[in-house]
Structures are given as C-alpha cells and as structure tokens.
Amino acid sequence: MKKLVALAAFAAMTSPLWAATQTVTLSVPDMNCAACPITVKKALTKISGVSKADVNLDRREAKVTFDDAKTNVETLTRATKDAGYPSTVVGTAK
After folding, report:
1. Residues with Cβ < 8 Å from 35, sequence gap 6 or more?
2. Phi and psi for 22 in degrees, rounded to 5?
3. Which of 6, 16, 38, 85 is deepest in the core (most CB within 10 A)?
4. What is the Cα–Cα distance from 94 to 88, expressed in whole angstroms?
5. Is the pLDDT at 23 greater than 50, yes or no?
6. What is the secondary structure of 21-79 as a DSSP string?
7. Residue 8 within any structural domain of the chain
8. Pairing between strand 61-67 and 88-90?
C-alpha cells in the first residue's frame, strides 16, 4: 500500500497539474492570397503542442488549439512572424 501511495504522489508531482488545452484566435492581417493560409497553417502545426490550426483567409485569422504545457501564445505569434505573417492575439486564450 505504501508503494502505491508513493507512486501516486510521484506521478502527481511529475505531471503538469496546470496544463490545459487552450484555444486562441490570432489576427493575421498580411494574408492576402490563397497560399498565405497554407503557409501560416504549416508554421503553426510544426510547433510541438499544437493540435489544431484553422486558418481563414477571408477573416485573416488563425484559430489555434494547443497544449499550454508544451507551448504558449508567444511561440505561436513568433512562428507566424518567422513565416512572414506577423500576428496578434484577438481577445484572450480560452
């Protein structure tokens, strides 16, 4: 029984207790052609922790779902900027 309690305590201490799936919408105003969303989506989905990226050319937005224990909003915006499409957060991450 002591081993089980010790194992449970170890697992609780080593797993990210505060980790959660977040969704954020990024404004990407410089997208202006059919290839732009493909480039932005590719840049975002290469990031470890990103599980989904929906990019909309008409709205010039990217909706990104990610694990906040593996990445963060700053990394997402840096990835779009490095791909040639600077972005900013719309609202707050959910």
Report:
1. none
2. -120, 150
3. 85
4. 15
5. yes
6. EEEEEEE-TT--STTHHHHHHHHHHTSTTEEEEEEETTTTEEEEEEETTT--HHHHHHH
7. no
8. unpaired
